[in-house]
Amino acid sequence: MSSKLCAVIDYGMGNLHSAHGALQTVAPDTKVVVTSDADVIRKADHVVLPGVGAIRDCMAEIRRQGIDQVVAEVRKSKPLLGICVGLQAMMERSEENGGVECMGLFPGEVKFFGNDLVENGEQLKVPHMGWNRVEQVVHPLWAGIADNSRFYFVHSYYVQAANAAQVKGRGHYGVDFAAAMGEDNVFAVQFHPEKSHNAGLALLKNFLAWDGQA
Amino acid sequence: MALAKRIIPCLDVDKGRVVKGVNFVGIRDAGDPVEIAKRYNDQGADEITFLDITASHEGRDTTVHMVEAIAEQVFIPLTVGGGIRELDDIRRMLNAGADKVSINSAAVYNPEFVKAASDKFGAQCIVVAIDAKQVGDNHWEIFTHGGRKATGINAVEWAVKMAEFGAGEILLTSMDRDGVKSGFDLGVTRAIVDSVNIPVIASGGVGNLDHLVDGVKIGHADAVLAASIFHFGEYTVQQAKQHMAAAGIEMRLD
To answer: Which sign does the torsion angle of CA B218, B222, B225, B230 carry?
Structure first.
């Protein structure tokens, strides 16, 4: 039996060591590779689109390297997981950097938390950094993870979904936001599963065992 | 339902070993950094901070390898500090698997470095470490060189400036308290937390679990950092979290 292949897409935005390490740890029999090679991504059984940093730079690299084309193919054919800015890049547009057009896999926008985020009279700090709860909407990737488990977030912009049925995890920080989005074989999260200890590792394990059926 | 307060065990690493000094002198060996980091990860630590206290004097290759080894086994955020002076130092640590770097003296000598680092790598991975000492009533100053060198800079004003320059977080250490186990300097902690809109980690002086509670409840800190209470087995990280949760603080217990 040949082992499965998981491609972590590398488009030059930050270190993918952690994502690679976490995926490899939960699935020792899967070959996890960090790559920008479209052919390797096409051959993979599971594909991960990570992302850190500013959306303008991420989208510029995604377009320059043709990652958007590969993602468009992948989203029709096999399990795809977006992480952090990887999720944001899947929305229609972001208001970061004066407004950036994104890939549009999901309808909806990416918005700034703002500098006057207040809850119960308390000024909330931005970025939203730390461990927050995620209210789950039934999906195979939550299997075995307690509802309202905490995951590690670090972001200043949040996803506002246009289609509520695609929200698979609800987060709250001053405002309600989409902590996870999903449709068919695509799942994407705002938090960092590779930094979210047991709950995060469980989600990655579920992803690598997932056949893409929601 | 809110963001949890964080507990961050800190590894002060000297020549490849975790050590703990009292007021930065009188060093005690606490073991292998990779093993200790793994233990804290398993105990439910919310993050880990690795401070290379030999960095000012020696080569950094040992640190890079150690950070790589920790990042392979620890699936929570990892901050690395000590001797971060150039953009290339930051790049090396991030590539080795660090999620954030902590900048200390270099920020004091060249505040523009913080701006350049934040522009280049994003505010989320730039922590500015502030070592403060009380020099008068409600007056704290920045010290460098492990607390030996005064700078004359007001600590609260400095924190505000660093936030403006793009720091994503502040690691505040009270040099009077570090290693003496009498609790955080809550005055400077609260003064800084209430002056900036970025998270502040309180550090220096933790001797028991009530000190952690005070850091959050009285000092208003977003996160609390401690070293020796965990290294020498007095408390586990999980005990500390349970204690803080029992005091009514929002913690990650799952």
So the answer is: positive
Does the distance separating the beta carbons of B77 and A152 come in below 8 Å? yes
CB contacts of A123 in chain B (<8 Å) are 197
ipTM topping 0.95:
no
Q: Residue A61: which domain range?
A: 5-208
Question: Is residue B253 assigned to a domain?
Answer: no
Q: Suggest the residue from B94, B125, B254 to mutate for an interface test with chain A (most A CBs closer than 10 A).
A: B254
Using an 8 Å CB-CB cutoff, list chain A residues near B71: 17-18, 21
Buried b (16+ CB within 10 A) or exposed e, A65-90: bebbebbeebbeebbbbbbbbbbbbb
Residue B56 has pLDDT above 60, yes or no: no
Q: Kindly state whether A152 is in contact with chain B, defined as any CB-CB distance less than 8 angstroms.
A: yes
The residue-averaged pLDDT of B227-252 equals 94
Maximum alpha-carbon separation in chain B = 46
Nearest to B76 among A15, A172, A195 (CB): A195
CA distance A126 to chain B (A): 6
Q: Given CB atoms, is A77 within the 8 Å cutoff of chain B?
A: no
Per the structure, the count of domains in chain B is 1
For residue B209, what are the CA distances in angstroms to B76, B177, B201, B242, B248?
Answer: 22, 15, 16, 10, 14
Q: What is the pLDDT of residue B55?
A: 54
Given this model, what pLDDT does residue B25 score?
52
In the predicted model, is pLDDT for residue A208 greater than 60? yes
What distance in Å separates the CA atoms of residue B189 and residue B155, rounded to the nearest whole number? Answer: 10
By CA distance, what is B251's nearest residue in A?
A: A131
> A109: domain CATH number?
3.40.50.880
Q: Give me the pLDDT at residue B1, please.
A: 52
Residue A16 has pLDDT above 60, yes or no: yes
Q: Does A102 reside within a domain? A: yes
Is B1 part of any domain? no
Q: Is residue A214 part of a domain?
A: no
Interface contact B97-A17, CB threshold 8 A:
yes
Which CATH number do you get for residue B17?
Answer: 3.20.20.70
Q: Which of A15, A129, A150 sits opposite B252 (nearest CB)?
A: A150
Contacts of A129 (CB under 8 A, 6+ apart): A153, A154, B124, B168, B169, B199
Least trusted range by pLDDT, from A34-43, B50-59, B157-166, B245-254 = B50-59
**Tens digits of residue pLDDT in A148-200:** 999 999 999 999 999 999 999 999 999 999 999 999 999 999 999 999 999 99
How many structural domains are present in chain A? 1
Residue A173 tokens read as 């920080």
A203 touches B: beta carbon within 8 Å: no
Interface test with A, best of B3, B7, B65 (most A CBs within 10 A): B3
